[in-house]
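#onboarding

Welcome to the new folks! Below is a worked example of what a typical request in this channel looks like: someone posts a single protein sequence, and someone else replies with the predicted structure as tokens. Don't worry about understanding the tokens yet, we'll cover that in week two.

Example request:
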Amino acid sequence: MDTPAGDLYQVLGVDRHASAADIKAAYRRLAMRYHPDRNPGDKAAEERFKEVSRAYAILSEPEQRERYDQFGQADTSQPFSGGIDVQGATDFFDAMLGDLFGWDRKRRAGEDLRYTLEIDFEEGALGCEKEIRLRRSESCDDCAGSGAVGGAAGLAPCSRCDGKGNIKSGPGILAARRECRACGGSGEIPRVRCPSCLGSGSAEKDRTFVVRVPAGTVRDSSQRIAGQGAPGRRGGPAGDLHVLLRIRGHAFYRTEGDKLFVEAPVTLPELALGTELEVPVLDGVIRMKVPAGTQSGAVFRVRGRGLPEPGIARGDVHVRVVVETPVEPDARMQVALAALQAGADAQRYPRRAQFQAVRAATGRDKA
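Example response:
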């Protein structure tokens, strides 16, 4: 990573006539880019972060900037003039721009929760309702989320921060405001901690939700239930609950685009002589005729028994017949199969004869 050196304006990527707003915008962009929290373990980014913080600390102060413009150096009695460490740069960033992610230090949204729900293929295809149960953190009933015996009336100003919720540290331009650890930024602490939640203001509770899976859901997807995640902090909005739907695979159902296929295993005699099959579909069993001489892999379409489609009638189901080769044939079957193979002439197997002709022609071309 290249690090600009020398001129402080070059460090921030602005010209010498840039306005205070332009300088602040440049610093914000660069500081966000090279902040240690976004580049853990990256020493080059760490040095760049310190450098842009020092440049802004000088150019954001009118007197410092004027001195720098005149003499090319900052007042050595001022912060950052003799160098800067990472913690100092981070404190400076917090003081100038606030939290890296822009969170309100008084109110914070709760975290999103995730729940994985597995359903059968048929359940997703036809639609269903599923009840899920999960354990999540909620406001303690005994103290109304305050953490204090007696609820909000049992809170007292925090003595560590004098009820401000934050503690100021550092001189002058380096004055950084850090959230008070004693009260968590609320400015209040319980006089007597609630025994139910030990002063945390929250408790683990089981909750039940009904998830409605729309018909036609045959692929993994997700649903968001707004406001049903973890509770917010100090009155902040609750997070969301994300339900991840996982569709279990099926032995015979397949989807190709928006089409539903059923793979029906058949024997060679059934295709050669013709047969009638009973094929399971989503909502029952259908009977269909397979003409004599049907080839393995042939597809038959049955209207109106496929996947539901929003706003219109159900789609079609496509039945693909596939020859299943016998496993470990006995002696009688081996004799029958040998006799069948002996009669495999071109008249009865035209596609095989065509294939052999192409193979022979290809071999001659190579020779």
